[in-house]
Amino acid sequence: MQYRELANVYERIEATTKRLEMRSILVDLLRPLRGRELASALYLSQGSLRPEYEGVELGVAESLARKAVAEATHQTVESVARRSRASGDLGTTAGELLGDVRRVENDGPLELLEVYEGLTEIARAAGAGSQETKVKILVDLLRRATPLEGKYLVRFVMGTLRVGVREMTILDALATAFASEGKEARERIEIAFNLTSDLGMIAERLAAGGLAGLDSIRLEVGRPIRPMLAERAKSLEELLQRMGGRAALEYKYDGLRVQAHIAKDGSVRLFSRRLEEIGPQFPDLVRALPSAVHPHPAILEGECVPFDLGTGAIRPFQEVAKRRGRKHDLEQALEEVPVALFAFDVLLAGDELVYERDFPERRAVLEKLVRPSERIRIAEERTVTNVEEANEYFEEVVGAGAEGVMAKSLAEGSRYRPGARGFWWIKYKRDYVTHLADSIDGVIVGAFHGRGRRAGTYGALLLAVYRPDRDRFETFCKVGSGFDDAALAELPKRLEPFRVDRAPPEVDTGLTPDQWFRPSLVLEVKGAELTVSPIHRAGIGVLRPDAGLALRFPRFTGRYRTDKSATEATTSGELVEMYRMQDRGGTRSATGERPVRHKA
Ligand code: ATP
Per-domain residue ranges for the chain? Predict the structure, then answer.
């Protein structure tokens, strides 16, 4: 396949906002492809060269890309810089400039695999002379590129290729192209994806052997599994009822979720909730795990929390965040902020695929597998069989400083479900008891200019939740409070990589911010309550045909959820659920508006 065909598909997808149309464009693209071509087309469309968890980066800074564009189009670097400042996108500028030069035709049109290999070489180039190598490969590709190809090539290397097709839409397209449109096929494909997080590999197997091609997919050490997620309950009564009258309540530790993979030879890889490799930030855990866990290989999950070396007490989560991004003085950070891992689940133990077993058996395996030490511990838990017991334990847990409990179903069928959110796990936090909404993880989609003390930075951000069934981001609030001076000052820089010059097609809102952003960065907010709003679109059509939900008095908690991707933010469905939950005790006026309840 020629790269041109892929570029055409990007162009068509960018022009549509309809998920069904996107899917059919994708189906037409994928259906004739096989093997490496198929996998490469998928990785490239996701803006990467390999599955995201491998963290392959091209290492091309903007200045380097500018240099390559200048060389390929016979321009000076200054003039390329000037033009791309004006257009706001180096890709667009590259496309325009390529329209004015003669293409090198000798080698024929760019093949998809040639492009993929060229880009892979760019990623591989390291050490002395690597910058020149990267520029050279890019120039060679650009000289042969059509304007449209050039535009997308440059966007790819800059990490700004935003075609706007998310994984779920690709899975739909794969089902239609290589299996069937039925629900069952789609589910099997999603299960395989949740186990492997590798779209390319799944597509290749599907294309070669249909659904049966997925049968041999198993979890593997070193390849992260999408984490199982929890639902919420309104009360401990409801929680127990959902779980059939009996549940294991565990401490809900407030830290960073970690999936630890310990290979047979004792080497350790750690993955975040977003499947990013985070071992290098936690060398102390990497060192402690092999001797605390037997047998190997093993895959376990736990929450990483900072603790006080002297007293053993858990410290606030924010302290872990201090470690992230500290590369140079990491050793010092290790001493300042020691962390412990509270293991709460096990997916693989030795050769056994434990994740397929029900929770009570997994917990028993976990207790045998882990020899607790200062750094590696097992999540505290108690089995409760009635509301009084549940209440007693909950009080105890909250009294000890935890944010709540995580209930785990003990029933038949309570196996580990990768990537799924369901009532097999239920979170119940102390915040629910005080009638405050749970915190919401919102995606930044826009910003408003600041005035007065905030002039020169943003004064408020427009936040959205994710709507999986529509694959869209629906806004629910405009947040300006909770930012201290430092947080305010760094906003423009932090948001720079996501700036776009028009409303992203996947965003739904009734507001027009001064600046739009590609939905990427997630942050945590709390508010007084959720109300029905004609301006915001979260859950539109669920409660009312023409109105969504809005959060009143939103406030940034100070926590960026860099461990979540945009589609892992709070969903519209969860927001609707939270709205219904807050009904307890609240009185509704005829308009559906609720009286304001202030935070305690
Ligand atoms: P979610 O992970 O459900 O999208 P979130 O990341 O905002 O939501 P919470 O709503 O606070 O997090 O709760 C779920 C998280 O709680 C888990 O992903 C995990 O990181 C953490 N956690 C803490 N203790 C436990 C435990 N004992 N069992 C499972 N998860 C736990």
Answer: 229-432, 440-581
